[in-house]
């Protein structure tokens, strides 16, 4: 990954984008892709769209969501302590003792998630969100309300950590890596001869119900779509590999197989990987994928979909971990797939 691309990835990771509050990150995404795309646009769902070859009849939608799991302020008590609820699948179990940043009225308010001292009995083995609170140092409710309102979002304070062997750790890798990947496809294909229109979309609201994906697919009306998301790596201690399979970080892009997935798209992806001498991994999605692909699939007249995922460790935690090399491989695979399109393919299962 070159320096400018890495800088863009880190900028996305450091930009707070809880589900429902994606405008800041989308503006940065559009500024970046605008240098390479034929057109950039947005829609009523808050999606950001970068387009190459917009006059092409055959249209491919690439979707990578930019929203991250978060907290939302639910109550301010008389002493100025802040109670909160989850936004998306964020775990209360990893929260105690961590630093958060609340997106307040005018600026970012730092806080900590208070922990009962072990000398006073600790949290106990069984605790829920209602047992936790933010401590921002406020004297009382009146002072807190000058800075924070009910409904304000909060996220973990981010710290991108570069680990050995090209690994990085950060919050929000799920799925700002997907948003990054679909932007990089635009950059790498810019100026190349394409037989299809490429619509890369940084989608919103995936963590709370795949919301942006519906708006994107409904307005673009693509012929095919590929969702770019993350999946569970299983190459660390404590994972039941007999149950969850073997998915190492650097084992190659992960292709989904199952009823929601169009086999012809997958065959072309596997062929592209073979020509690149790139390994791919296979995960099973018998009923649903749990990604934007599920919502895109049921828009308009129906859209043939595939899912290409990046393996990630410690999903939905503040220390999600991925391989930069693996990110580049997903970008290269998607670019090769697109360059192989003639625009005359028939993706009907019985066509």
Q: What are the key terms here?
A:
2 domains; about 350 residues; six-stranded antiparallel beta sheet; Aminopeptidase; alpha+beta; about 25% strand; Elongation Factor Tu (Ef-tu), domain 3; 9 helices; eight-stranded mixed beta sheet
Describe the fold and architecture.
With 351 residues, the chain is of the alpha+beta class. It has 2 domains: 3-68 and 171-340, 3-Layer(aba) Sandwich (Aminopeptidase); 70-156, Peptidase M42, domain 2 (Elongation Factor Tu (Ef-tu), domain 3), CATH 2.40.30.40. The protein has 9 helices and 17 strands. It has helices spanning 3-13, 23-33, 141-145, 173-189, 211-220, 241-244, 263-275, 292-297, 324-340; strands at residues 39-42, 48-52, 59-65, 70-76, 82-87, 99-103, 108-113, 134-135, 153-156, 161-162, 167-170, 197-203, 224-232, 254-257, 281-284, 305-312, 320-323. The protein has an 8-stranded mixed β-sheet, sandwiched between helices. The protein has a 6-stranded antiparallel β-sheet with strand order 5-4-9-6-7-8. A hairpin with a 4-residue loop joins strand 6 and strand 7.
């Amino acid at each position: 990954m070159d320096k400018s691309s890495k800088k863009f990835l880190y900028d996305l990771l450091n930009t707070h984008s809880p589900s429902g509050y994606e405008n800041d990150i989308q503006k940065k995404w559009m500024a970046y892709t605008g240098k390479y795309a034929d057109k950039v646009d947005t829609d009523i769902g808050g999606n950001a769209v970068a387009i190459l070859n917009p006059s092409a009849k055959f249209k491919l939608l690439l979707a990578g969501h930019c929203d991250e799991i978060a907290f939302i302020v639910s109550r301010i008590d008389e002493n100025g302590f802040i109670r909160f609820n989850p936004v998306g699948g964020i775990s209360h179990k990893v929260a105690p003792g961590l630093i958060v940043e609340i997106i307040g009225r005018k600026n970012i308010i730092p806080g900590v998630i208070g922990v009962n001292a072990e000398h006073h009995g600790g949290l106990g083995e069984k605790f829920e969100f209602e047992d936790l609170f933010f401590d921002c140092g406020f004297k009382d409710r009146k002072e807190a309300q000058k800075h924070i309102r009910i409904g304000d979002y909060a996220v973990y304070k981010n710290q991108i950590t570069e680990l050995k062997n090209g690994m990085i750790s950060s919050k929000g890798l799920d799925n700002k890596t997907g948003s990054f990947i679909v932007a990089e496809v635009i950059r790498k294909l810019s100026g190349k001869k394409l037989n299809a229109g490429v619509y890369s979309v940084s989608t919103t609201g995936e963590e709370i119900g795949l919301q942006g994906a519906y708006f994107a697919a409904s307005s673009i009306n693509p012929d095919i779509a590929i969702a770019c998301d993350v999946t569970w790596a299983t190459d660390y201690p404590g994972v039941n590999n007999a149950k969850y399979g073997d998915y190492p970080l650097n084992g190659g892009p992960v292709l989904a197989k199952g009823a929601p997935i169009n086999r012809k798209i997958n065959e072309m992806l596997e062929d592209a990987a073979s020509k690149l001498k790139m390994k791919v991994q296979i995960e099973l999605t018998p009923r649903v994928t749990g990604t934007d692909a599920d919502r895109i699939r049921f828009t308009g007249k129906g859209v043939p979909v595939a899912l290409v995922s990046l393996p990630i460790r410690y999903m939905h935690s503040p220390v999600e971990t991925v391989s930069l090399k693996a990110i580049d491989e997903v970008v290269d695979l998607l670019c090769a797939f697109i360059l192989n399109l003639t625009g005359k393919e028939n993706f009907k299962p019985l066509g």
